[in-house]
Amino acid sequence: MSAVDFVNQQLREHFTDVSRLTAEFVLLRDRLMRAELKIQVLEETIAKFNADSVLASDSCVIKSADTTIAKH
Question: Is 2 helix (H, G, I), strand (E, B) or coil?
């Protein structure tokens, strides 16, 4: 095998490795983006749940105060 053939073979192998790594990177990037979206949805759901809990708690306090006032 001549030096030129050897270099060409090495370049082809390198190109194949780079192509494979690029494809893997794209897949991992896409998975990361989907995971970030899921995290965002979960954070929004938790925030809404917390807000609903605060409203429900405030409502219970108001009802309790109304009941206390009505008894007096």
Answer: coil
The structural domains of the chain, with segments of one domain joined by +, span 1-57
d(CA 32, CA 48): 24
How far apart CA 20 and CA 14 sit, in angstroms, is 10
Residue 28 CA to residue 22 CA, distance in Å, equals 10
User: pLDDT tens string for the chain (72 positions)?
Assistant: 899 999 999 999 999 999 999 999 999 999 999 999 999 999 999 988 877 776 667 666 556 555 655 565
User: Is the pTM above the cut of 0.70?
Assistant: no
- DSSP of 13-37, one letter per residue? HHHHHHHHHHHHHHHHHHHHHHHHH
Residues in the chain: 72
